[in-house]
Structure prediction request, 1042 residues.
Amino acid sequence: MTAGAASPADTAGLPDSQAGVLLAVEDLAVRFETPTRTVHAVNGVSLEVRPGEVYALVGESGSGKSVSMLSVMGLVQIPPAVVSGSIRFEDRELLGMSRREMNEIRGRDIGMVFQDPMSSLNPVHPVGRQIAESVRLHTGASRKEALDRAIDLLDRVGIPNAKRRVKDYPHEFSGGMRQRVMIAIALACNPRLLIADEPTTALDVTVQRQIVALVKELQDELGMSVVWITHDLGVVAEIADRVAVMYGGRILEKGESRDLYGDARHPYTSGLLHSIPRTDTALTEWLPEIPGTPRPITEQLSDCPFVSRCPLGDASCTGALPELTRIGNPGHFSACVHHDATVDTDELWPSVEHGVGDDPELPDHPTITIEDLKVHFPVHRGGRRNRKTTVRAVDGVTLDVYAGRTLGVVGESGCGKSTLGLTLVGLNEITEGSVDVDGQPLDTSSGKHRRTIQMIFQDPFSSMNPGMRVGDIIAEPLRIHKIGSSQDRAAKAVALLERVGLSADDAQRHPHEFSGGQRQRIAIARALAADPEVIVCDEPVSALDVSVQAQIVNLLRETQLETGVALIFIAHDLAVVRHVSHEIAVMYLGQVVEKASRDVIYDDPLHPYTKALLAAVPVPDPELGVDLKPSLEGDLPDPADPPPGCRFHTRCPVAVKGLCDKTEPQLAEIGAGRWVSCHLVDSPLDVQPAPDLNRSRDVPTESFRNGDQSHTNIDIDRD
Amino acid sequence: MLRRGLRNVNRYLLVFAIAVSLNFFLPRLMPGNPLALIAGVDVGLMTPAERAELMEQVGLNEPLLAQFFDYWKSVLTFDLGYSYRSGRSIAEMIGERLPWTLLITVGSLMIASVVGIILGGFSAWRRGKKTDLSLLTSMISLQSLPSFWLGMLLISIFAVQLGWLPSFGAETPASGYVGWERVRDILEHAILPIITLTILSIPGAYLTMRYAMLEVLGSDFIRTARSKGASERRVLFGHVARNAIAPVVTFLAIRFAFAFGGSVIIETVFSYPGLGRLIFESVSGRDYPVMQAAFLVFTVAVLVANLFADMMYPILDPRMRVR
Prediction:
């Protein structure tokens, strides 16, 4: 894949050979000086990007990966940013270049794509004009010529009906389409370097796969280099030729992609690779955890930035910054003083044994029974007839939730999974169907089931009242439900704080004093306060840093084993869901298309949508030789106007004309405890139970109660 | 888009109906004899027979509902009754006065918005620098000037000391000017009130624009524009200003209502024969029918200004347009 002239052997030694280097960053340092404090965002970064390669910059938030590349573009604000070092692009020094010279390079030689495609496009200009602006700035093309070029580009990045859509505004496109527009802008002048800053983080896995494939394809076609900034080790494995892992504003390890994944030498890299849940390896009871949390660096760095969280950290790690030294294969460098000790990374990051017993037996009766639940929202569309339409966010869902078990709910954004969760805690009105809690209809008036069902939200930053002390936040459910005296409540809040790994003193502090992972611990404590029977977790780890996710996943699992609480785990990350769930329900446009026990779904998905979702999950292993063909084309259809027949038929690779687009399939039991809603899945009652992956947490397949859907399938003949 | 505009108009018609109804009910709900408020007569000096006759005359002895319909009829036909003091038709009086008030308020707002937007934009561009800070400081000081004081100051400088401009009236009485001469005369009279109102309106427009610009400057799409290689000026005019203008339009609508109300003071200071001065005169003469009619005109003016702002929004922001 490395299209550069240099073979790996030529680039042994430090620094990399200057021959055939497109971008050379040397000893880059960036600090932000605000009146209250100084943050050292980048602390001596050196890297070289060769022509025609994909270079991945991996790190958590605050690792300095984005700031480094924004410095290349001259897009860090100066002041308060102080930038030093050297950035050479095609042998021209970019640092200290005049604004005018820099403007010529930006957009013409280096294009950039950002994370959030909605906010990164100007809302008041049509997309065509925004692409044409790039063209006109650098080529002197006329308005007409530039617009023609914009249409070509839109077409090239895969926007259907480019000629018509060129006049549309950004808000009229879906998230994935907007990111395609961003790519068209960045590529308008055929740059030699494309910097992509977390370009797929805000997108669904299926759309992520499309965007990754598009960039790879365009890169081969245009022969440009790509710097791909991300926190997602899975995506990196799919696309990168070479990788640099950043932490605390330093590169801790860099090398060829296969060396980094196959032979990670730095404790941080191996820690990350061990702690992320994946879909391709055997399940372990507990994820290895990296302790602590990443902190911004506010003083001149003099120790290894990872020392406080590293199992090998000792006195030799402090006092001097470990330099990148060559290790293993040519071009593989790591900055650690303990290289010899880090060879066996499995021992370095053992699975954390929490040892609180096994899963309880499956109870006879479910805690929550969801029966043909429908939640519809009226929306005003305006338009010629000012029609009112209905978004069928949840449209006929039948599920059971059992004590001590976790039900994973997955699907693309817009599939209704969050609406389902919010309905269970009483934040949405039920349109039709029923939700029974312990045999009683869900009553969301105060003092009833609101206590029984608690919720953990995605964003721990915005879901807590910033004016309240943490102790009061945790005790609030108790106060609302009038449980105990105020001393009892305070004592319970303290006990819960200690339970989730924080200290008693933290009760007096405010939410802003905590990191994201700590806040999610507080959210868990708050959810546990009222002794609920069920906790709805809506994307509980997706806003957290990768190195912190394992801690929270383990904590949730641990509390479940201790308290026997039922969890509903709503997430788009299929690897995390696989790790925590006993049963899985896959949702598409408000309906469950497949449900079964965890191992059955992951080992042998039957519904084409489940297959596509799983195929889209990036696997952090470059050796797999990933097929970059998108597993699913297009976007989720408008939930207010779902396609007739099978809702998935518009995107289904195997849809049968005349059947799938006409007749709606019913969710039918096609094996023990295994439910699929597809015309093309025959009732293979001879389907063997999927082989168990050396796990004790196996689930009886009867865990899903029979729904009331018709079991007869009129179109497919069954024996 | 037109559809949406019409929906807006419906909403405004409803507000208008409520305002008119309030205008009808308020004097009738107030303690004491509504006759004084509606007919504007020194009721205490009359004999009971005279009072009854007057009640009959203004229709106060009819059922409330009938009065209500009569009131609506008169509002919709612009038959606003007669002034108690001068005996003239109120509709006619307002028709005479309204153009003058519109001239100085709309004129000053247009100048103030252009100056305020330019200065606000410039200030945001130079954010944190000396020019920005000194502009900001002077705008805040300007904002705190009392309007009557500013008006009197301008009169004393330009009319009394320098003698360049007239100090009162809307045109020279009995001058017999026609055509361009008259236009010039009117403008000469309008300059000082307009300058006063403009100076008072600029800080608001400036502050709104500056703040909106700063907010837009921090947006992600500004970073995108820079990453394309757009110059700072292009970023500012092509991307920032266009997005920042919407809040300024809202501000101008509110400011228009404010200026309309503020015209009472300004027109009194400059003895300018506009609606504000009419109100002043009717208040001091306790001419209730005129006051009521003038309030109605104010209500309509405020509604129209807000409707205008609402209609401008979809033009300025495509996200507000209905597909």
